[in-house]
């Protein structure tokens, strides 16, 4: 498995790259600045080497990273750059699956979302790319700090949504490689609910009345 992470130099992308590479996945970091991506890839590789892990992480432009991916291209950019990045990469995404982990947080207020007219960032991505390129929403509710803390397992389950079942199953496999449990949460329209959970978690995690931080969502089966 070779996964491209577009915006992989940011906190969320970095944590995802480290987790995947630690699990033996080849990772390609894509950035608007290829040099920055290359430097980040070398730094991530060095971090894992300190833990005795020989990682395969490379860095390059967003376009080259997209081309290099086996089939999974993860979009991990600020929401302000979401649509423009997808329009740029769209011609290169044929025969790929776009994994959209972006949450449309309100500008200046991470405790709220401002959904696009399509209903969610996931649905907006599908509208931009068209029906021939499957878009799967995932990893919206995982703290970047949790992803980057390799001393602990990821503390939550992953809700996955999209209109293409086989694409969702492929993304679920990627999530499970990192030691998480992933659930099929329905069609792309489910992203309206899933993405909206993130600001609620942020609110809880920064509350002085809550005795923890960096919490996520877990699906709890009955104990009996």
Write out key terms for the chains shown.
224 residues, eight-stranded mixed β-sheet, two-stranded antiparallel sheet, alpha/beta
Quaternary structure of the protein: single chain
- Strand arrangement, major sheet: 3-2-1-4-5-8-9-10
- Mean pLDDT equals 95
The general outline is globular
Fraction of residues in helix: 25-40%
Number of strands: 10
How do the helices and strands follow one another from N- to C-terminus? EHEHEHEHEEEHEHEHEH
**Mind describing the biggest β-sheet?**
8 strands, mixed
In terms of DSSP E residues, the strand content is: 15-25%
Computed CA radius of gyration, to the nearest angstrom: 16 Å
Could you explain how this protein is built, in words?
There is one protein chain. With 224 residues, this protein is of the alpha/beta class. The chain has helices at residues 11-22, 34-49, 62-68, 82-89, 121-129, 144-148, 165-177, 191-206; strands at 2-6, 26-31, 57-61, 72-75, 97-100, 105-106, 109-113, 135-137, 158-162, 182-184. An eight-stranded mixed sheet has the order 3-2-1-4-5-8-9-10, sandwiched between helices. The protein has a two-stranded antiparallel sheet with strand order 6-7. α1 (11-22) packs across α2 and α4 (82-89) packs parallel to α5 (121-129). The longest helix has 16 residues, at 34-49. The protein is globular. It starts with a strand and ends in an 18-residue tail after the last helix. 44% of the residues are buried. The mean pLDDT is 95.
């Amino acid at each position: 498995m070779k996964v491209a992470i577009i915006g992989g130099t940011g906190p969320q992308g970095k944590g995802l790259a480290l987790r995947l590479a630690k699990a033996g996945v080849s990772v390609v970091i894509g950035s608007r600045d290829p040099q920055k991506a290359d430097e980040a890839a070398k730094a991530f590789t060095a971090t894992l080497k300190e833990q005795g892990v020989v990682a395969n992480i490379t860095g390059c432009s967003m376009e080259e990273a997209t081309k290099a991916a086996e089939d999974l291209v993860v979009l991990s950019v600020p929401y302000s750059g979401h649509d423009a990045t997808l329009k740029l990469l769209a011609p290169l995404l044929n025969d790929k699956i776009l994994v959209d982990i972006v949450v449309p947080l309100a500008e200046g207020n991470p405790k709220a979302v401002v959904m696009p007219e399509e209903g969610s960032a996931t649905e907006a991505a599908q509208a931009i790319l068209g029906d021939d390129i499957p878009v799967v929403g995932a990893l919206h509710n995982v703290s970047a700090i949790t992803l980057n803390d390799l001393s602990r397992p990821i503390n939550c389950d992953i809700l996955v949504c999209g209109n293409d079942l086989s694409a969702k199953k492929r993304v679920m496999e990627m999530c499970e490689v990192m030691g998480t449990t992933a659930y099929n949460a329905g069609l792309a329209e489910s992203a309206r609910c899933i993405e909206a959970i993130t600001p609620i978690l942020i609110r809880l995690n920064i509350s002085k009345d809550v005795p923890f931080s960096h919490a996520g969502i877990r699906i709890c089966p009955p104990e009996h």
